[in-house]
Design goal:
single chain; alpha+beta; Uracil-DNA Glycosylase, subunit E; six-stranded antiparallel β-sheet; four-stranded antiparallel β-sheet; 11 helices; elongated
């Protein structure tokens, strides 16, 4: 079947995109079309995982197959050349390069520039997707959850046959980077099944698609989340984006890259089995709510020991607030007052980078309930 599809692409190029004779699977609203990305980079040190190739990548790949076939290139070399040309191609590659450069992946992989990964150093990167062939739902590029992948026979079949099947062909020391939450959930699924060591999964970048809006800017710290428009959907992703960025910096730094020593976040988004988050309720007017958790962090040594704020009005005016320590041993920073957006950080992790990004810090004092304090009101930063 695959041979017949390949012959059709060689003959018709871009005209064969999403035709009946290039369909490899369908179930319910889902369709999966053949993608000529069969080459596996067996010397790869970095594996980049998306959700699925889209129409732009399909068109680029099919046209390239047609072109190289006419030049007489053998099929195995066509697959490698097409993957280097079209994988995460189009406008999304520029966003992907911005993020890789931000974390210093060139230094990590020993290349001159991250763009070399799609040129002279293409042997160091393996590009793949949760559904490696191009998946669509109701004629639109599939952009759903990993749970939806597992629930669809067509999508799950491609995931287990094409994605899981190639894991054993990759080097044992290759590290994996997800593009967004769905690929990260897929990698976690593979870790839980014993198919990947946990330490090989570095975390998630923001999805680099051209239609992703401002989320790449927020993710790499080039845009203050407070400047997002009220209806920008990225507002609802800020906590996850910043948490994933912190995890990536820590992972790259641990591997010897130039990533800043920003801590790994314990939990950036609720797990699939977690109960629904609840909104934080402010204390009733005119009374002080009891402290919700454990003791307030003392001043003094430690990365956050000098951070403090002072109550400016009310019966507690003059009281010095310190970073609050929750029962799980974490500090909390957040872009909003809602618990769903909380980013939990170990008490031995520096908080300065988060405060510079404009996140508020939960602080408290004996007799004063924990509350989120703006970075502008916090003293002792950078000390």
């Amino acid at each position: 079947m695959i041979s017949g599809i390949y012959d059709a692409i060689c003959r018709d190029g871009g005209a064969a995109v999403r035709r009946a004779d290039t369909l490899v699977g369908a179930s319910g609203p889902h369709q999966v079309f053949y993608m000529p990305f069969g080459h596996v980079e067996r010397s790869a040190r970095l594996v980049i995982v998306g959700i699925t190739p889209g129409t732009t990548q399909l068109e680029m790949a099919y046209k390239k197959v047609h072109e190289l076939h006419r030049q007489g290139m053998p099929r195995d070399k066509v697959f490698r050349a097409v993957k280097a040309h079209a994988a995460f191609g189009g406008p999304m590659r520029q966003n992907l390069l911005r993020m890789l450069r931000h974390f210093g992946f060139a230094a990590l992989l020993g290349v001159h520039d991250e763009a070399d990964l799609w040129d002279s150093a293409s042997q160091l990167v393996h590009s793949t997707s949760v559904v490696p062939h191009a998946a669509f739902k109701n004629d639109k590029m599939f952009n759903g959850s990993f749970q939806e992948v597992l629930a669809s026979p067509a999508l799950r079949g491609s995931f287990e046959r094409d994605f899981v099947g190639e894991l054993a062909l990759l080097p044992a020391d290759a590290v994996f980077v997800a593009l967004g939450p769905t690929p990260l959930d897929a990698l976690d699924h593979c870790v839980e099944r014993g198919l990947l060591p946990r330490e090989r999964v570095l975390g998630a970048l923001a999805h680099p698609s051209a239609g992703a809006g401002s989320q790449v800017d927020v993710y790499i710290g080039e845009r203050d989340p407070e400047t997002l428009k009220p209806r920008d959907p990225v507002r609802g992703r800020v906590a996850r984006l910043l948490g994933n960025a912190a995890r990536m910096r820590a992972a790259v730094a641990a591997l010897g890259g130039r990533g800043a020593a920003v801590p790994e976040v314990r939990s950036s988004t609720p797990s699939a089995t977690s109960p629904a988050p609840t909104r934080e309720q402010p204390p009733a007017p005119g009374r002080v709510a009891p402290a919700a958790h454990a003791a307030t962090a003392p001043g003094g040594p430690g990365p956050n020991g000098r951070l403090h704020a002072t109550v400016s009005r009310g019966p507690k005016a003059g009281t010095v607030l310190r970073p609050h320590v929750h029962a799980d041993g974490c500090h909390v920073v957040s872009p909003t007052r809602f618990e769903a957006d909380y980013i939990r950080l170990s008490v031995d992790q520096p908080l300065d980078d988060y405060l510079r990004r404009g996140l508020k810090l939960r602080m408290s004092a004996p007799g004063v309930a924990p509350s989120l304090i703006s970075p502008d009101s916090i003293r002792g930063r950078g000390a």
